[in-house]
């Protein structure tokens, strides 16, 4: 099993070759489709025999991916309510994301 853990957008993702994942929106690639990108912040790699843990990053390791598109997640509703005081606030939020497909781990 060949996988890696990458850091992007303040979050960490476990990725395998061929997997599709939604990461926090990459501003530089807004609206660009089928573009190749490289994630340099690789925290851990595993090739099935050896596991390499970075301090904090694995030197020389890169994960290449292809941008599939942009989008927004489902709406999350936030409600503030205080009984007996006629206080009611409702707010919605949709988080933007960039969908990428992992091409290779190296």
Automatic annotation (TrEMBL):
Keywords tagged on the record: Ribonucleoprotein, Ribosomal protein, RNA-binding, rRNA-binding
InterPro entries: bL21-like, bL21-like_sf, Ribosomal_bL21
GO biological process, alphabetically ordered: translation
One Gene Ontology cellular component: ribonucleoprotein complex
Top-rank lineage group of the source organism: Bacteria
Description of how the protein assembles with itself and partners: Part of the 50S ribosomal subunit. Contacts protein L20.
Function: This protein binds to 23S rRNA in the presence of protein L20.
Protein's UniProt name: Large ribosomal subunit protein bL21
Organism: Candidatus Lloydbacteria bacterium RIFCSPHIGHO2_02_FULL_50_13
Name of the gene encoding the protein in the UniProt record: rplU
